[in-house]
Structure formats: C-alpha cells, structure tokens
Design goal:
This protein has 319 residues and is α/β, with parallel strands linked by helices. It has one domain: P-loop containing nucleotide triphosphate hydrolases (Rossmann fold, 3-Layer(aba) Sandwich), CATH 3.40.50.300. 29% of the residues lie in helices and 22% in strands. It contains 10 helices and 12 strands. A hairpin with a 2-residue loop joins strand 11 and strand 12. Helix 4 crosses helix 5 (128-138) and helix 6 runs parallel beside helix 7. It is globular, with a radius of gyration of 21 Å.
C-alpha cells in the first residue's frame, strides 16, 4: 500500500460514553470506524445531537475514547501526554463554526495568525508582520489586514483568517466544524473553493462536519452519515444522489431544497424524533422512524457492511 493509500488518521472502533444519573450512560459515539486520507475530504453529516462534535473532540485530542483508538500515522494519540501531546497538536488543526467566537477580540489579526507559530517556536516575534501578510494573501485577503481587529472584518473575511491560522502550522489534517454555516450563502461558495484549492496545494486531509447534505456532497470525496452516535452509511460523494441505500440517508436527500427540484412532489419529512442518547433502543437506532422496520431491526443493531467498493451500509435490508 502506497503512502497516498494509507490513511493519515484512523478512527478505529471508537465508543464514547458519558456517565449520567441513576447509573446510566449517555452513548455519544458507538463503535465508529472512519479513515481520513491525504488530499481527500471526508464529509460527516447528521442532525444535531448525533455525536459529530464529540467525535471531533476526540480527533482533536480534547477528549479520549471510552473504547477504541484514534491513530495518527499509525500511532495511538490516546496515549500521548505532556510535551508529546502538545507537539502532536500542530498536525491536526481546526476551523471553527463561528469565527467571531473563535478569536480574542483584543488581538490583531497578525497576532491571531502567528500565535500558533510562536507557540511552537517556528518564527520570531519580529517576523509576525511578514508572516501574517503571507498567510492572509494565501487565503485571498489583503496583507494590510494584518493590523486589523476581528470586529473590523466581515464574517467571510474572519473565516478566511481562521483558515489561515489553521494552515499556518502546515497540518496534515484539518477538521472543519460547520465552517460555512455562519456565513451568507453568497460567501459560502468562495470559502468552499478556497478550501478545495488549499487542499490540492498542500495535500491536506479534510474532515468536513455539516448539516447540509447538498454542501457536503459538493465538497467531499466521501460522505459518512451519522445517526444517534452510529455511522449508518459511508459512500463516495458522486454516488450519494443515485446510490444511497440507508433509509436515513435517503430521507436526508429527500429534504434537500433545490431550485431545480420538482415542486409538484410532496417533500417527505421524517416522522417522530430521534431517541435520547440516554435511552438508545435495542437494535437499530433508526427503528422508530423507519418505514421498513422489521422484527430483526428491533432486536439487532446492524453493522456496516460493504455493498460495493467504498460503499458501506448498516441496514438489515441489505444483508
């Protein structure tokens, strides 16, 4: 297997439980396995509360799995401590959802971009101005923005600064948490195009967490669909609209609003609500919202199985 084919980051059978009252546990992630490859984007889509943010925290070494491992270039990052953990953090960076909350409002843009570089001793204080201008121009912003404050910039400009700060350390993996949801629709496209260009230039593995199925399929190479802490389908992005199999994935696709859609057709909604992660039912987690639920679905939780190369589904319908 070549280096291009080896995942730079592997999530292997990761489960995360949080203790709750009365001896119960909140199941945030359940036996999740995902791979991130250099120069490729893995989109992770699912509704609020499905466990996306918990998974991100573990990938970023802000939390540890209850079970399973997260491997970076084959090394378990869950056992890293102290200086070794600090040094590892430069390799996996983050672009946050709301750039206005991600920055210290009292810091100038040059200080925001260069703080990680100074922290790792990669530049001197005297080089901040020059370095900040270089990274600002890399994300298509004028170099003179280096002496501005975040409140003097638009939301799209602040998000570009967030991207500049993330790529400054030359990471191998960048996780984007709803990185375009706080932006105007007109700005989203330019930010997506910027991320695609930077990925090609720097061969970065991207994880793109989002609610927007249409945007995820546009940006990603592969899409992982998450429901109630479980990965229910992983599919190449170009096959999503025609080849998605899981009832939840198909329901998400049916909810996409598009100007070219057939307005004579009724928009189908998913009935009822997802169960509480404190009280996950035995069997398939989607059973109470699925029109195809069988007795087996209520007894056994289906596992991901490969239907065709690169396409995995966790559903008893396809066994």
């Amino acid at each position: 297997m070549s280096d291009m084919e080896k995942p730079v980051l592997e999530v292997k059978n990761v489960t995360r439980k949080f203790p709750a009252s009365e001896g119960r546990f909140l199941l945030a992630n359940n036996n999740i396995s995902l791979n991130f490859y250099r120069g490729k984007t893995l989109g992770i889509v699912g509704e609020s509360g499905c466990g996306k943010s918990t998974l991100l925290r573990m990938i970023l070494s802000l939390d540890k799995p209850t079970e399973g491992q997260i491997l970076f270039n084959g090394k378990d990052i869950g056992v890293l401590k102290g200086e070794e953990l600090r040094r590892h953090r430069r390799h996996v960076q983050m672009v946050f959802q709301d750039p206005s909350l991600a920055f210290n409002p009292k810091m100038k843009i040059k200080d925001i971009i260069c703080e990680p570089l100074l922290n790792f001793g990669l530049i001197k204080s005297s080089e901040k101005e020059e370095t900040a201008k270089k990274y600002l121009e890399m994300v298509e912003l004028p170099g003179e923005f280096a002496n501005r404050y975040p409140h003097n910039m638009s939301g799209g400009q602040r998000q570009r600064v967030g991207i500049a700060r993330a790529i400054a350390l030359k990471p191998e993996v960048i996780m984007c948490d709803e990185a375009t949801s706080a932006l105007d629709v007109s700005v989203q496209q330019t930010v997506v195009e910027l991320l695609v260009r930077l990925q090609k230039e720097n061969n970065i593995a991207f994880g793109f967490v989002c609610h927007d199925m249409a945007l995820v399929t546009q940006l990603s190479h592969r899409v992982a669909v998450m429901y109630l802490g479980n990965i229910v389908e992983v599919i190449p992005a170009e096959q999503v609209h025609t080849g998605a199999k899981h009832p939840y994935t198909r329901a998400l696709l049916g909810a996409i609003f598009d100007l070219n859609m057939d307005f004579s057709k009724k928009i189908e909604s998913i009935e009822s609500e997802a169960p509480s992660p404190l009280d996950v039912p035995v069997g398939c987690p989607f059973q109470n919202r699925c029109d195809h639920c069988t007795e087996k679905c209520m007894k056994e939780n289906p596992v991901l199985k490969e239907l065709e190369p690169g396409h995995f589904v966790a559903c008893h319908l396809y066994e």
